[in-house]
Amino acid sequence: MAVRHLADNPELLALERLIEQAGSRLCPEVVTRIDCDGETLPVWCMTLGSRRTDVPAIGYFGGVHGVERIGSQVLIAYLGNLVERLSWDVTLHDLLERVRLVFVPIVNPGGFLRGTRANPAGVDLMRHAPVDAEHRVPWPLGGQRLSPRLPWYRGRASEQLQPEAEALFRVVRERLHSHRFSMAIDCHSGFGFRDRIWFPYARSRNPLPHLPEVWTLRALFQRTYPHHDFYLMEPQALSYTTHGDLWDYLYDETLAAGNGNLFLPFTLEMGSWLWMKKNPRQLLDPLGLFNPMLPHRQARVLRRHLTLFDFLQQAALASESWLPRGSASREMCEQAARELWYTQGQT
Ligand SMILES: [Zn+2]
After folding, report:
1. To the nearest whole number, what is the mean pLDDT of the chain?
2. Is the pLDDT of residue 179 over 70?
3. CATH of the domain at 31
4. Within a domain: residue 346?
5. Ligand 1 centre and the CA of 117: distance in Å?
6. 95 CA distance to ligand 1 centroid (A)?
C-alpha cells in the first residue's frame, strides 16, 4: 500500500509508530477506514485497562477537525507517556485494573491529510449529529446545510452519518456508555485566549440535567489543583450555540437509555488566540490559527494538560466519594451552578 498518507500526515505517522512500539499493550483497532484522495486512511482506537462494565471508563478524543492538529498531538504525547509507564509504573498497572481508557486521537484523518476542518465530504463533524439547536444559532458558525463549500456544513438531513461520526458513536456506545460511570474529553483548539473545558449543551442555553455533577467535578479539580486555574469550565452555549454537536447527542442518548449509567462528556477547547498574540507571524500560516508553531510553545502545550487527563481517571475511579448524593445536596450544587453559569441573560 502507498505510504504517501503517512508522509503527509505526521500525526498519523507518529500514532502508528507508537502503536508499533507498544504492540498489543494498546489493543489497537481500526474502527473505520476513510477514502480520501486515492488513499485509505485508518481511524485508530486504542483501549487500555479493565473491560468490566462496573469500572469507570474515560474516553480521549482528538482530531475531529483536521486543522486542529494540536489536540491529536496532545493525546499522542499522553499515550506515549502511558506506554512508557506501562514498562515500569506499578501504580499505573493498579489503576488499569480498575478503569478503562479509550483513545481515538485522530477522528478525521482525511481532514488531516487535506488540511481542512471538515472531513473529505466537506462535512463539519462537530455540526453533524442529528440534533438541532433550541435557539437561533449564529450563521453559518452554528451549522448550515446550504453547501459543503461554506464552512460549518452539517451535511444533508436525509443522509446517513458520515463514517467518522458513525465510528465515533459506535466507540462511545460500546466502550463508554456501557459503563456505569464514564467521561469523555475531546480536544480542540482555535477559540479564545483561555483554555476552556466545555460541557453540554451546545444546542441549548438551558442547563443539562447533570449540572450538579459537573459543578462538583469542577470544584474538586479547583480544590485539588488550585494552580491550574488557566481552565475556564463552562457550558458551551455560553460561548455560542450550535446544531449537531456530537457530544450533545451522545449525552442525550444516555439520558434516553434511562439505565442509570452516567456519562459526562467534555470538550477541551485550547485557546489558540493566545499563541497568536505571542507570535503574530502565526497568522500568516493557515494552521497557525489553530496550533502553536514555535517548538517551545508546542512543548508547553503538550505537557500542560497531563494533570487534567490523569485527574479524570482518579476522579472517575473515586466518583462515589465526590458525586453529590441526595436531593438536598444536589439542589445546593444546582443552585451554585446556576448562579455561576446561568444567571446573566440566560434562560
Ligand atoms: Zn474543533
Report:
1. 94
2. yes
3. 3.40.630.10
4. no
5. 8
6. 30
Q: Residue 2: its pLDDT value, please? A: 43
Is residue 347 in a domain?
A: no
What is the three-class DSSP state of 270? strand
Residue 158: in which H helix or E strand, if any?
A: none
24: containing domain = 4-341
Taking alpha carbons only, the member of 297, 280, 265 closest to residue 74 is 297
Q: How many domains does the chain have?
A: 1
Q: How far, in Å, is the centroid of ligand 1 from the Cα of 325?
A: 34
- Rg (the chain; Cα; Å): 19
Three-state DSSP at 269 gives: strand
Q: Give the pLDDT mean for 307-332.
A: 97
Grid-cell match 438536598, residue found? 328
Ligand 1 centroid to residue 259 C-alpha, Å: 31
Which contacts of 148-152 are long-range, i.e. CB under 8 A and separated by 24 or more positions? 148/118, 148/121, 148/122, 148/123, 149/122, 151/117, 151/118, 151/124, 152/124, 152/127
- Phi/psi of residue 191, nearest 5 degrees: -135, 120
Residue 93 lies in a domain: yes
d(CA 86, CA 96): 10
Asked, for residue 179, whether it belongs to a domain, the answer is yes
Identify whether the C-beta of residue 115 lies closer than 8 Å to the C-beta of residue 286: yes
How close is the Cα of 66 to the center of ligand 1, in Å?
A: 8
Question: Per-residue pLDDT for 347 more than 60?
Answer: no
State in Å: Cα 188 to ligand 1 middle: 4
For the chain, report the end-to-end CA distance as a whole number of angstroms: 55
Q: Using DSSP, state whether 45 is helix, strand or coil.
A: strand
- pLDDT tens for 3-40 read 444 567 899 999 999 999 998 899 999 999 999 999 99
